[in-house]
Each structure stands twice: as C-alpha cells, then as structure tokens.
Q: What sequence folds into this?
C-alpha cells in the first residue's frame, strides 16, 4: 500500500488482500513494525560513514527483496531529500571546522560536509526501511498490528478511522475542486484564490463533521461499545523468527562496524 | 517543516518523544466513544487538506492547517495530528520514524496553544469577528511551529542556527496564507454551522 492515494489505487482501506510483496509480504506485521523501529534506532545511533553506508545498503537490499516498484519508491525517497537538501547544502558553511573551499568568501568546512552526508544517509536508510517493512502493510493490518503491540485502543481506533476516511474525503475534495474548476476557477496568487481555498477547507470540515455524526449514529445502531473486534490473528512462524534474527544480527553488525 | 532522522541530537529526540507521548495521552483521555468518529474524520480531513497545494508566486506551498485542527479538536489534535504524521512517514516517506515525537510536538502543541488562546474567541461575536480570531489563530500556530522547529534545531547544535533562521523567514508567506485560509474557513463554518465552535469552546 506504499503507493496509496495514487490514481490507480482505489482505497486506502481495502482490507484483507495483502499484495504480493515478495519475501517481506508474508512476514508477521508485528515483527515488521518492531524491526523497523529497531533498525531506525540503530541507524540513528551510528556515527561513522562506513556504518551508515552499510545501513543504507541494508535498506536497499530490503527494497530489492520486497518486490516494491524500485524506481517509484526511490523517487518517493528523493522527494523527501528535496525537503532537506536546503539544510544539508547549508551545513558545510555554517559548521565551523577545517576549511574545504569558499563560495563568495564563505568558507565551507569538511566537518560540515561530513555531517550533512551523515544526516542524508541516516534519513534515507531509515525512511526506506520504514516504507519497505511497514509501508507494504495494508493500512488496516498496520492498525491491527499496533493494537497487538499494546498501543492504546483509542489511538488505534483513531488510526483506523483516519485510514478509512482519507479516501472518502479525498474524493469529496476532488469533487469540490471539480465543481470549482467547472465554474472557471484557476488558482493564482491572489486573495480570491485564498478565499476560495479557505471556503473549500471550511466546507470540507463542515461536511466531515456532519458525516461523523451519521457514522456515530450508524455505529451506535449496530451496538458499538468502544471495543475493537479483530478478525486477524497473527502468528510468528519460523520464517518470521529467522528474518528477525537476521535483521537483528545486521543491526548488531552495524553497531560493531561503527565501533571499530 | 518535517525534521528527518539523524538531524537532531538524542536528548532532543527523546525529549520530543516524551512530550508528544504526554500530549497524546491527554488528547486520548478527552476522546470518549462519541467523539472518536469526529476526531477520526477530522484527522482524515486534515490529512487530505495537507495535500492541497496553494500557489504563491511561481511556486506553491502545501497547507498545514494545524491551527484550525487545534481550534476544532482541542487536545485531541495531538493524537489526530500524530496519526497523520505516522501515516505520512509510513506510506509517503515524509519525515522520519525516530523524530516522529519531535515532529508531532512541533505541530500539535501550537495547535493546542491556538485552541487555548483563540478557541473561545472564535465562537463569539459576529462570524466576521470569529473569522479574524480564527485567522490570528492560524497564523499563531504556524509561527509557533516554525519557532519550535527552530528551537529543536538550535538545541541540537549552533551549526543549524542559520538554517533555522532561514527556515523561519522563508515561512512568513506560509503564515500569511494559512492565516487567510483559516480565517475564511472559520467564516464559512460560522455561517453554515454556527454550533460547531460553540461546542468546541465548551469541550
């Protein structure tokens, strides 16, 4: 489901049909969530470039194993990079240290450059692993897995509701945008645009609240008591344990490499 | 606005996670069964709203609307925005995992503060007055968020200070747009569904 909300994918909430995501797709969702967290914490703890390169290599090999569309996934990752590139480019100039070169009289330091590379590697390794291990889950399965991992029940409810209604509300948003377009609305940098978008957001919220009242009525009508009924049972198989052991070993290896 | 993994020092990351967990706990307590659907649907709305790109000059910015989320949800904005950030990180690859706490706090705390300061005011007076308070709340929330982001970076190390300052100034137009948009959204809501904010201010 990593590519939800794209034209092809219909709903974010379509449960039950776990897509065939290679070796990763069959693993226990709980194990995937926990392993993603363990890997993230390990990677953030790393400080040397070789270890971080190894971490990114691990993430990329997980991506290969997962059978996710590689180019699209890497494109997503690059999109995140475009957010932080600004800060990373600035770092060599703002961090004191041995001068590397100067641009318009501003010296760039080696330390800053290494720091920037370090952050870039960490961020990409963690987000890629997260997308591969957890992003390939059905969103609903993610909710169930978090519930089994003893997340607060209300939080899981909230997550499931959000997942369920993102697609519904996006359709409503597109319908409203379509209605605006058909009346000749073209966004630009002017007050009219901002006012129209403000009304659009306001309308979406009013409709969302009214919708939620209907949902509550429907749920009460069916005897909702705040209990989460889970139809999915998770079981750790031997493969899950082996995979967990392997990735855990990789994490320890990374820490060891970092320590050298 | 998203901070990524590896950028912040460990104390900042841990502090952010603890603060976010506290905020989420308070928010969850305020959610009884009757309010879960509302919070869930609103959380989804803000997720969708954050996909709206608003043109500004040759470029465009995406909306955050955390001020509006706070005004409607109060403390429940914490878990609602956390869920949004979690889904964004997992399914879109925005932000990061270990920094989820910091990012949640930076976006949700201003929302709660905006609700505390402006929550009562937007339900009073004429719709236009409410809209002006709403707009101020929207601008305040963005300003506070940028400030929190800058502080998280500055606490990590001085080398981030210039970047933090630049981020702040780069976001002033965003602040204005969010203010105008939030104002008009409140204006519409006050006219179409006046009881919306009356309920919000008593909750």
A:
């Amino acid at each position: 489901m990593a590519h939800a909300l794209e034209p092809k994918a219909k709903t974010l909430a379509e449960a039950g049909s776990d897509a065939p995501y290679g070796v990763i797709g069959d693993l226990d969702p709980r194990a995937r969530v926990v392993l993603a967290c363990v890997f993230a914490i390990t990677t953030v703890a790393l400080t040397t470039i070789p270890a971080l390169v190894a971490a990114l290599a691990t993430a990329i090999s997980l991506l290969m194993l997962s059978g996710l569309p590689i180019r699209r996934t890497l494109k997503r990752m690059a999109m995140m990079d475009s957010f932080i590139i600004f800060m990373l480019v600035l770092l060599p100039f703002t961090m004191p240290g041995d001068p590397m070169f100067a641009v318009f009289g501003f010296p760039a330091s080696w330390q800053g450059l290494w720091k920037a590379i370090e952050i870039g590697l960490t961020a990409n390794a963690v987000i890629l692993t997260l997308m591969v291990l957890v992003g390939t889950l059905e969103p609903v399965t993610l909710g169930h897995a978090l519930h089994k991992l003893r997340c607060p029940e209300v939080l899981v409810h909230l997550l499931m509701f959000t997942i369920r209604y993102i697609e519904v509300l996006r359709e409503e948003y597109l319908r409203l945008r379509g209605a605006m377009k058909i009346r000749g609305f073209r966004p630009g940098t002017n007050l009219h645009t901002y006012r129209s978008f403000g009304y659009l957001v306001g309308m979406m919220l009013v409709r969302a609240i009214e919708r939620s009242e209907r949902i509550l009525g429907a749920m009460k009508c069916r005897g909702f008591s705040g209990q989460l009924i889970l139809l999915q049972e998770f079981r750790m198989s031997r493969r899950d344990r082996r995979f967990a052991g392997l990735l855990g070993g990789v994490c320890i290896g990374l820490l060891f490499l970092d320590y050298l | 606005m998203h901070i990524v993994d590896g950028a912040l020092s460990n104390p900042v990351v841990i502090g952010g996670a603890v603060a976010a967990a506290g905020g989420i706990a308070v928010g969850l307590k305020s959610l009884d069964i009757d309010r879960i659907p509302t919070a869930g649907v609103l959380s989804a709305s803000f997720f969708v709203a954050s996909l709206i790109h608003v043109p500004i000059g040759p470029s465009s910015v995406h909306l955050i609307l955390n001020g509006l989320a706070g005004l409607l949800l109060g403390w429940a904005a914490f878990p609602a925005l956390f869920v949004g950030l979690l889904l964004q990180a997992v399914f879109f690859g925005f932000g990061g995992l270990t920094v989820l706490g910091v990012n949640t706090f930076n976006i949700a705390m201003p929302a709660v503060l905006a609700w505390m300061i402006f929550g009562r005011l937007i339900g009073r007076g004429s719709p236009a007055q409410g809209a002006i308070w709403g707009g101020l709340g929207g601008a305040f929330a963005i300003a506070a968020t940028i400030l929190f982001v800058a502080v998280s970076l500055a606490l990590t190390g001085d080398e981030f200070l210039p970047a933090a300052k630049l981020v702040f100034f780069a976001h002033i137009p965003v602040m204005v747009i969010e203010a105008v948009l939030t104002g008009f959204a409140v204006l519409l809501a006050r006219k179409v569904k006046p009881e919306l904010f009356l309920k919000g201010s008593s909750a």
